[in-house]
Fold each of these.
Amino acid sequence: MKELIKPRRLLQGDTIAMISPSNGWAGDPDMRWKYELGVRRLQDLGLSVVAAPNALKGHDYLSRNPEARAEDVMWAFENAGVKAVIAGVGGDDSIKIIPYIDPAGIRNNPKIFIGYSDVMNLHILCYQCGLSSFYGDNLLAPVADAQGWHEYSKKWFTKVLFDHSAIGLIEPSNEWTPDMPDFRNESQIRKYHPNNGYELVQGRGSVKGRLFGGHTGLMELRDTSIALSPDDFEDAILFIEDLSEFFSPESIGAFLQWLRTIGALHRVKGMIIGKICENADFREHKRVISEALSSDPALRDMPVLYGLNFGHTSPMFVLPYGAMAEIDCESRTFSILENGVV
């Protein structure tokens, strides 16, 4: 993996800009309440919040105008008054904005960028520009969850983005839910379940590596300007998650086969897997992963840890791209050994 610049930490009074790189729901009239709720919660942290010029023009307009979404990315990074950038929500077509973004605007203006899901494509662009970004909270979820910004999510958002000390041990949350947020329901109550901690899929000992990953759409970047090479996975701890429809046992098997095919699987030091978006066990997924790796003597001891709180379930912690992390198989723990910000 390449060396990445760590952005400056957030301070009280800083301005964070909301952009809509994937979906324009934040500006739709029936969802505007959610944007405004998220703004208030970030203001409670001492931040000033602004929307990029096109970010609240609504789903219909932004879906037809990827150039406008890209203009907002450039505006947010090149605006000296903006100290951090947060995505409004995920979606499925952020790849359309990549050709309209001048990488120099990101490379020359390193700052915090955070979001998850389809926002991953912009993370990969940041990575290729040499910037460490953050796979974590979008504004509409989890910051603006109708039930409240979960304390676990809020804790890691503030720890990772405001604190320049090492992030440390990432303990599992006490509870979790696979229920998706309803962006139109101001009184939604999602059902949370007890969390039983992390599950060791396979592996021995402990490994250290630099964080890299996102969701299984990584394998769809071939033939795009942000296509990945095997070198991008060198000495990585790969983090991976996705929505249930893209994260079946068969999908995980296909993802591992893709890594093998491009010559990346043997470059990876270990893997952490986010909780699947359904209240079900991981046995069949585990079997597929174990069969794919145990058939290769060089991969039999690769640490793979499942059930971590990141991605499409709630609550979530924040993953800084390029930060040194550690998986310990004996204690079944995951730690981020470095700071995410300076």
Note: Residues 169-336 form a domain with the Glucose Oxidase; domain 1 fold (CATH 3.50.30.60).
Amino acid sequence: MLRQRAGVGKWALTISDILIVVFTYFLSHVIRGLFDTGISGLDIYISRFLRSFPAILPIYFITFYMNNLKLEEFPLDRNEFHMRTLVSFTLGFLASIFMLYLLKLFFQSRFMLFIFYIIAVPLLYGIREVLSRKVPPIRVLIVGSSRQSEEFFEKFSKTTFTGIERIEWKGKTQSIARIKEFLKNSHVDWVVVLGKDYREWMKICTDLGITLSIPLERIVKQPVFFATLERIGDINILSFHRGSQKHLELFVKYTLDKILAFIFLIMAFPLFVVIPIIIKLTSKGPVIFKQVRVGLNGKKFVFYKFRTMYHGADRIRKFLMDFNEMDRVVFKMKNDPRITPVGRILRRFSLDELPQLWNVLKGDMSLVGPRPPLPEEVEEYELWERRRLSMKPGLTCLWQIRGRNEIKFSEWIKMDLEYIDNWSLLLDMKILLKTIPAVFSGRGAY
């Protein structure tokens, strides 16, 4: 019932989104026309609008409809939905420009497109904020200790797109008979049982047709990170996953990875000319260092970096193990004698990592994700630590922005799992933005 209720506004919001795009697209033509002294008249603006917009209308309709399917999910994270909308609109915006070029209908100025984008984004955001406040709150009865109930209510209220109204239990005793009577005579949409005794509640709520939620850990008796429920025929199957099941968001993530990696490669082209020359002039050996690393779900791939060590440095690593400044399986040494003077500069500002943009284009890596480990490191992982391989490795991560080599391996692993458990497009954007000052500071880079 809750999923259907949360999805009631799906079509209304999609139509609203289309109306916003129609309005802002036309308005942007008018605003742009104000700067052309030789052009005036509403008929001219209407003519320009009608020549191009019908060709791109299907793109925006599909984009918004797919985006607003998220409303059918419960619970729905407010910030994640806003970020998803921004990304979806941006992809639709770029696709529409491509379509206009393809159909030879592109005659809009870049200024007009800029106006269209900056007006549409806040309007799309605003309509979602209005919707989230206008949708009637879900009336929830939380069953558990006072502390459990308060913690759950606070966590849910801070992030949910749809508001909830907490129903207070007024009785002095909480016998099954009294609660059954209470539920029959009260308007309750949702019951959340946080305690151990959930079986009787399940029967009561099933009989009354009220949605019941139970923390999965209460049933399986161990921590669970990602789980989905599928129905095959008349059999309900509970599946446990190693990583996030946000398939559409992951598709957007990996699509943006390739687009941004391509852009960054073009922007960094001068560095790809200068750095190899400097490396070649200052030390012998190949410019690009290649190494086998472990990626998503244990798949091995060839990892690229600008060479920062003297040629053949790997052969003397075993003689330096006593100087390892990291714990457990990772080897890091602050004053590593194998690193060239140029290599120290490249490492300090992470310039040696630039060739990994090619790994991103190939699909071996992502811009954001756990750093890819060596096969021999993975062999020494404890079983629970291998879960960091459930997300595609990245150029930057939480470890990168929180101190890099100043952080011990055990904390590094926990940060990677924190990233996997809380992954969203918004989190990726925050990490990318924080990577810039982290790189310039050079903290923990050696």
Note: The longest strand covers residues 226-232.
